[in-house]
Design goal:
- There is one protein chain.
- The chain is α/β, with parallel strands linked by helices.
- The chain has 6 helices and 9 strands.
- Strands 1, 2, 3, 4, 5, 6, 7, 8 and 9 form a 9-stranded mixed sheet that branches.
Length: about 200
């Protein structure tokens, strides 16, 4: 079982990419929607087999997670700001403002250290963007990739926090698949034609 998060790029690009790559090595994968924090714990415990894509800054905390070497995504971590508000990381010190975020402790502990902004933690990128669009929060930290860049462009008041590279992660018990799967991912990306079209 492979975990994925509710993010348009993951669902429409990375899940089909990996489904196609796994089929090349004779595996019919099952994908399950599991939030970031829980997915990493389950993967480390061997309760799930893989995670679709994550950046690597946290992987050292887990003894039983291994990385497939070829990156599958480049992501932009972006601060979205409501139109009339200031838009840089200094806003994290404003106790009168609110920030929507996913997996705060797991991915943004360093960034949020000493912040005073009111944090609303969610598990769905879709919900996060929806409540931001409805003006229910002042700011949101959102991840965009090549597949969802057009969505990002509709938010004019934004600040690029950082760019990261995403990798497919496996449970250590599947160490033997790394080389074959890596080749299959490279081949699948080169061939294309795996996107989910709606």
């Amino acid at each position: 079982m492979i975990s994925y998060v509710e993010h348009e790029g993951i669902i429409k690009y990375y899940v089909p990419l990996l489904a196609s790559a796994y089929k090349k090595i004779g595996i019919e994968p099952e994908f399950e929607l599991i939030n970031d924090k829980r997915a990493l714990k389950l993967l480390d415990q061997g309760a799930i087999d893989a995670d679709t894509a994550k950046s690597l800054e946290f992987v050292d905390h887990y003894q039983n997670i291994i990385v497939v070497p070829t990156p599958i995504s480049q992501i932009d971590v972006v601060l979205l700001c409501q139109s009339k508000l200031p838009c840089d990381l200094s806003v994290l010190k404003d106790a009168n403002r609110s920030l929507g975020i996913i997996a705060a402790d797991e991915f943004y502990a360093q960034l949020l250290e000493g912040s005073e902004i009111s944090i609303l933690e969610l598990t769905s990128f879709e919900t996060l963007l929806k409540i931001f669009d409805q003006n229910k929060i002042d700011y949101a930290i959102v991840v965009f990739d090549d597949y969802t860049k057009n969505t990002m462009l509709k938010y004019h008041n934004r600040f690029l926090i950082q760019q990261k590279i995403g990798y497919h992660l496996l449970s250590k018990k599947h160490q033997g698949l790394v080389e074959k799967l890596d080749k299959a991912i490279i081949q699948t990306r080169a061939e294309g034609g795996f996107l989910t079209v709606q």
